[in-house]
Amino acid sequence: MSKQRTAHIISHTHWDREWYLPYEKHHVRLVELVDALLDKLDGDSAFRSFYLDGQTIILEDYLQVRPENKARLEKYIREGRILIGPWYILQDAFLTSGEANVRNMQIGHQDALKYGAPAKIGYFPDTFGLVGQIPQLMQQSGIGNAFFGRGVKPTGFNNTVSDGGYESSFSELIWEGPDGSKVLGILFANWYSNGNEVPVDETEAKAFWDRKLADAEKYAATGELLFMNGCDHQPLQLDLPEAIRTAEKLYPDTKFVHSNFPEYLNELESALEGRELSTVKGELRSQRTDGWGTLVNTASARVYLKQMNQEGQALLEKVAEPLASMANLLGKDYPHHLFTYAWKTLMQNHPHDSICGCSVDEVHREMVTRFAKSRHVAEALIDDSKRVIADAVNTSVFAGYGEDPLPLVVFNTTGWSRTGTVSIELDAARLYLRDGLGLEETGRRMKAVDLSGRELIDEQGNTVPCTVEDLGLLFGYDLPDDKFRQPYMCRRVKLTFQAADVAALGLRTYAWVRRNSAVASKPASLFTGHRVMENANLKVEIAEDGSFVMTDKATGQVYRDLGVYENTGDIGNEYMYKQPEGEKALTTKGLAAQIRVLEDAPYRASVEVCHDWEIPVSADEKLDEEMRELVYYPYRKAQRSSKLTTLKLRTVISLEAAGKGVHIETTIDNTAKDHRIRALFPTDLNASTHQVDSMFEIAERSIEPAPEWENPSNTQHQQAFVDVSGEGAGLTVANLGLNEYEVLRDGRNTIAVTLLRSVGELGDWGLFPTPEAQCLGVHTARMELIPHKGDGVASGAFTEAYQFQIPWTVSQTEMHEGTLSPAYAPFQWEGQELAFSSLKMNEATGDLLLRWYNMSKQSSELTLGLNIPHEHFYKTTILEEDAAPLTKSAAGCLSLLAGSCEIVTIGIRR
Predict the structure, then answer these.
(1) What is the DSSP letter of 279?
(2) In the β-sheet with 172-176, what is the strand arrangement from edge to edge?
(3) Which of 386, 459, 491, 734 could potentially form a cystine with 449 if both were Cys, beta carbons 3.0 to 4.6 Å apart?
(4) What's the pTM?
(5) Active-site residue list
(6) DSSP E strand stretches across 50-159
(7) What is the mean pLDDT of residues 596-609?
(8) Which domain of life is it from (predicted)?
(9) Which of 882, 907, 885 is nearest to 142 (CA)?
């Protein structure tokens, strides 16, 4: 290493908003830190700059308490002495959706621009692994770098610290995404606190810098050495200028600079000219480590949080935003301010110590409230938008099909045509209390409403089989825009039926009418035998223990022993799972179950399976002893208790008439501690790799871990689904908020999905008991098994898995004329390899923005046509900047080629 070296010392603090302390206790310390920072900047020009952890939410948190200091903050941000952004929060990359990451970058930039300019730094100091599409997200955000602390093993200068299996020669590397996007990667090889608490005293400083300079030079590719002066919730080092002067005196051959990221990058890039760095491709998941410290099992800590997050993300990005965009086409204002508020509230649960479920109980209680708050805003936006759209549908066509029609609209806010079972609660009749009949008379009249002689029809008058549940007399109310609330009593029914071929981002209208029809024949059943369900695609046979066999009629592939549950002890913590040594897993294989038909309708068949499962009540007493002694979890010797408890499992297995998969709903009444429950789905397919849904990517991973991997468990992250495919057949397992899976090396390539994990401590650097992480009580998990011909994209299996994430939306409406036809969609698009991601509106321009990503590693054609007036199309970035005009075809459609794994955003100017 050349003796010409520069020590770049960057002042910062890594600010977990909540973790081992509740949010407000950290909040108090944050206010104290920023107060001290502003005072230091006021009084000492030698303290040049401070990096505010890459997240603009710190400004909101501080100014919530100190609004009088806004001008001081803005002054130093505009002067470049406080660097902010580019994110709104520092998120976990594997547990938050692609669109959530885009909103995070968009809102971070928007908020930063109010004060100055966002720092173009791809900042991931403590993210628990990084998804493969980060380089593309950075490039589309105008960022050419990524600073991160986990995921890659560097070997260091001249291989001096190599222990095998390294992925990069240095802490500096080229990181390439699956689309070919590249950024300069900077690994905090000595962590993001390697320049923390620099001594002023010469003796102490000599010992400090001898060690620190040598440590940095082990990994650095150049003489530009990075030292991060700060750590988690670290107070400001007020005497840093004095400490730098001491270092300069001790090391005349070294230049010490109170630096910042832009200055460091500028010097580093100059020094790297002509140097060849290692290129690391795709996901950074610490694949080449022993597997004990990857923090991967945060994907299953407090599963209920992940399920709430999945619901919240889906409602905002896949329902509320598309419906609001469609309503805007009809003249309704797009509520940008409310979307920003809802997204911010949701993203406050996305930091790695929050969504990962690895904090103290108080933190996660507050998260539940935030999830509810964001969801309530989304639901209000959905209700407003769907009402506007439904009111614009021409329902007058139903007048000729029967008497007293009650129209309803079914919305498909997914990006593909959809068929499936929907339910709606319909007011068959209503009397407002303002009519003055009195509660008794109003109730009597509603109870007397005749519900007989009615049937459901589509917009062409065809009868649609449905079931009707009379919900009886119910109270309701309207909240008009121009009047006081309007309470009423109603007679309500619940209709359940199959909505067929509802267009992508479109709607279809039905009506419940009274008419004199011929006596209906007995509806068809999907049951073809004892505990056997069957449609045109699949056959499902349920065994006495509740497991089942699924036959894919298209391929003839038979999948056996599906739906067995596995239970093991867990003596780990919120970060990592640890099975007791020598323990044999318990399963429900052969365990007698109570089985009954739950639903036998023409659109769906369902079977209920109930187990009473005797499992150990907890770990034995040694676990508490080892936790108190801070025994590192891989070395714990605790076993499971000999005392048993009854865990009740209820499984509902459903097959829809047009279904491409089997739906599974599992309800667990958890009475045990220190354990894990998984659902097992053997594939019996010959494969060495598998595919998994990640952020804007279908990632391919090896089933066999790297040689360095020592952990017996090889659990990994997923978002919407995981898939194992062989020659001519494949099995996709979709989930709702179940972010942990493992493909077992059991000779059957079994897909194991974690449903529940119960632990009693946070883990990490001390003892922080978390009794609520035991997750006692009732939990429900939902999955869908989708067999296919071996290609999840071409077969449509991945499309089915994505649609599984998104609820149907329904709305009752009135009889009226309208500008929209009863079956309507504003867009049509084609592109088999493309996954639809979002439809929203740009606040500055009013343009519509549609986004897709290419699931394939090959280029794929996207064709887009519109049923709405428009001026032109253009291609843009995730920041919705740098528009590139696109040419329409003679037919008025857009056709473009999406590159390998490309994220494509199309703007529509109206």
Answers:
(1) E
(2) 123-124, 145-148, 182-187, 172-176, 279-281
(3) 491
(4) 0.97
(5) 126
(6) 50-51, 82-83, 123-124, 145-148
(7) 97
(8) Bacteria
(9) 882
